[in-house]
Amino acid sequence: MKTTQWMTLILMVLVAAFSRLIPHPWNFTAIGAMALFGGTYFPSKKLSMVIPLAALFVSDLVLGFHATMLYVYVGFLAVVLLGWTMREGKTFTRVGTMSLVTSAVFFLISNFGVWMMEGLYPKTAQGLVSCYVAGIPFFGNQILGDLFFTAVLFGGYEAIKKFAPDFAVKASA
What we know:
Elements: H1 3-21, H2 31-41, H3 45-63, H4 69-84, H5 92-117, H6 125-134, H7 136-163
Helix pairs in contact: 1-3, 2-3, 2-4, 2-7, 3-4, 4-5, 5-6, 5-7
């Protein structure tokens, strides 16, 4: 990979990590979109998993660690895996739909982690439902953030491929 291509990837990781560190509405960050983007565009499947998790980890070093981290990281890995399904045939509709799907997948996994690890809810079906209901306000912001940053990342990268192809990274299976 060329230096310019590495610079593109590193810049994207830093922007995603930074989006968690600046003041923002709860869950309105670039991390979910970065995970989807990574699964779709990064040149190797291994790299597609490592780079988004690196962005998450870098920002967690500043924000602090918590009991539900395993579920958060697994949730973002699931988003990367769903991104793998979009390596071929990216359309506006498909990218938008997958952004919504990955928001829902992350919501389900991360809130399950809150229910399991935090002790805020009884370990019953009703407790799990209560946990998911309590997470709905965060979910709305996550959907908006994922849609916004997915549009920025995917749209921006397609523009880079068209107007500055030396900075683009070719995906491989």
